[in-house]
Amino acid sequence: MAKRIGKILLGIFAAFLVLIVGYVAYMQIQYYRIDDFTKLATENPQTEQVQKGKAYRIMTYNIGFGAYSADYSFFMDTGEMLDGTKTVGKHARALSEKAERENTEGSLNLVKSQEADFIFTQEVDEKADRSYQVNQREIFQKGLSGYGSVFANNFHSAYLFYPFLEPHGAVQAGMLTFSKYQILENTRRQFPVSDAFITKFTDLDRCFLVSRLPVDGGKELVLIQVHLSAYDKGGLIRAEQLALLNEVLAREREQGNYVIAGGDFNHDIAESIESFPSGQKTPEWVYQLDSDDLADGYRFAKAENAAEIPTCRGADIPYEKDVTYTVVVDGFIVSDNIEAKAENIDGGFLYSDHNPVVMEFTLL
Length: 364
Prior knowledge:
Blueprint: H1 2-30, E1 38-40, E2 55-62, E3 78-80, E4 86-88, H2 97-113, E5 118-128, H3 136-143, E6 148-160, E7 169-179, E8 185-190, H4 199-202, E9 207-214, E10 220-227, H5 236-254, E11 258-264, E12 298-300, E13 312-313, E14 326-327, E15 330-335, E16 338-344, E17 357-363
Helix pairs in contact: 2-3
């Protein structure tokens, strides 16, 4: 009897081991990184050209794949309350398909209300289990039908069977750049990313999207949408990413182009680490960047209301004003031949764990 039980247990263990090895092999076979310098087409291309001396509006907004209503927390986020209580997020997917659609439409309406000429959006799901297969890319492109758009995939993962009771699933997601003006060319540039065994399967395929727009007089307006790494202990990968971005910024300035780089920097870009009331300690992932960290001739266009309105909340707990940790990580870098004035928009974190940022600018 004991031998029979032992054989059964051994068989169960062997089956489990085969399952694990098979799953790891599946993840490895499915794993890939998109090539650097990948050219991307503009959908619904526009024809009007950008002009010097004219005022324009640009917006950036991380829509958080439609999951982050105020009552949402994310399983990968951790934190600590001021009293030392450890916190960890709960969910790997949106709360429901209904909530997913409501948040996506809410974010779209918030974007449309700002009447921007150019729009950067991050964490836009195209086909993902975490968002119940709701195609946010299609919804935004249809809702912003008067714009040309380009999509850069920066998250393509095989089915992640974790957490076990609510698997994150497979994901195809990325960044969308919208423009009411003519785009000559789009190039997806690959950021350095971690190749650690587990991290490479779960982290984004980080990139930045470079879009070139003709300007009267022969120069170009170069729009660069970015989404830098957040989960990087020691900041080594983020330092490499910033170095590459600065290399590109410097090259464009040497050519006399107008440059705006914007998006989710996942760094404090407004000296806001301790600006807002909070019942939580400052998270480990919050690093500070300022204009001194940028290539010569560039600056962060700090929002005039950056001390009053944060752009990102911690997602380790549901959002509660003055309790959940908040900081400014979204915004724009501008070259010194651009006059710019930015404003953080108070969206109340109703549809995303981010608030939008809008910037008015003029090419000098």
